[in-house]
Amino acid sequence: GEDVEQSLFLSVREGDSSVINCTYTDSSSTYLYWYKQEPGAGLQLLTYIFSNMDMKQDQRLTVLLNKKDKHLSLRIADTQTGDSAIYFCALSGGYQKVTFGTGTKLQVIP
Amino acid sequence: KAGVTQTPRYLIKTRGQQVTLSCSPISGHRSVSWYQQTPGQGLQFLFEYFSETQRNKGNFPGRFSGRQFSNSRSEMNVSTLELGDSALYLCASSLAGTSSEQFFGPGTRLTVL
Q1: In this predicted structure, what is the pLDDT of residue B100?
Q2: With CB atoms 3.0 to 4.6 Å apart as the test, which of A97, B35, B110, B112 could cross-link to B56 if both were Cys?
Q3: Strand B10-13 vs strand B108-112: parallel, antiparallel, or unpaired?
Q4: Under a CB-based contact definition with an 8 Å cutoff, are residues B49 and B32 in contact?
Q5: Three-state secondary structure call for residue A81
Q6: By three-state DSSP, how is residue B34 classified?
Q7: CA dihedral B111, A34, B30, B87 (to 10 degrees)
Q8: CB-based contact B106 A97, cutoff 8 Å
């Protein structure tokens, strides 16, 4: 099955950029997502990218996809304390069977 | 438009009991997926229903089952509960098809004692 790996923890200072990385094994995934989970809450879809794209920008968020290296990243510009949460990358090859990464806990230091 | 709702939000059961969790999707959404989230295993896909049919299934034992009603509401059932079933159970709905975004509910926190 698909393996999706993320580093467990990232700490950044408020105002800096955050880069959260994700590596995966199955190259057949069609849709690649980034979700945010705040304490005690469900998952919030932040953005997604199709596998035929290399980059997508959405306000403070930039998603980069390197298909050759099977690497997905999420860059958050001007990181704020409200961005502190767990971030999951997720992949889907079809229908709604989505495989989630292990999650990266982002801590923003004021 | 109301979001995905899940009931109950919190549940405490004992080993051997069974439990039924409910999910009401966003109006118009016909696909409902269920996920289990635990600290050790992370987020794992349970199953997905579309138009009352199970369209996809994860690697969980038969104690985990689900169904979807004609109004797209879905229930999942776990029989003969084990301590390891303690988790946050998340439901997600989407319109349908491969390109649909999934919208998640707040989850049901199940504790098995």
Answers
A1: 63
A2: A97
A3: parallel
A4: yes
A5: helix
A6: strand
A7: -10
A8: no
